[in-house]
Amino acid sequence: MDNHGNDKITHLQKHVMFFDRNKDGILYPSETFIGFRAIGCGLLLSSFAAVFINLGLSRKTRPGKPFSFRFPIEVSNINLAIHTSDSGVYDQDGRFVAAKFDKVFAEHAKTHKDALTYKELKALLRANREPKDLAGWIAAFSEWKILYVIGKDKNGLLHKNTVKGVYDGSLFERLANERAAKKK
Rounded to two decimals, what is the model's pTM? Predict the structure, then answer.
């Protein structure tokens, strides 16, 4: 993957790289679909994610390049697609900001200090909403809802270490490995 001369891969790039199935630095809808299937998502969610994510992020990650009906996402430019109304855990360059991550749980994990209930997750989303930012609200809601669905435990809790794993992509690898092991 071309990282524009920067040898340091950001957490946001790691988050996205799981879905770049052929590791060429370009993420196509088919790869998004396959990645979602690999982590255990159904056909409908995987299809929706492939369309929604690639349609929404392709142009943002390809500044100065012509429109493409293939809706590619350039992993090296994924920081250009950071949206508003989110937690701020990624900075403008896509780096993980530990203080912002810890703040999510310090302010919103009321029932359990290291886990969010669904009610607490909804409160987090409400607190992060910026006025007149429908696109940001939808993006944040979609991301956190999918994370809750794939990452909650049997008691409906979304644990801090699970959430941290989504920020660097390690949760996706773990889920894919668990799913593959169950198939054997």
Answer: 0.91
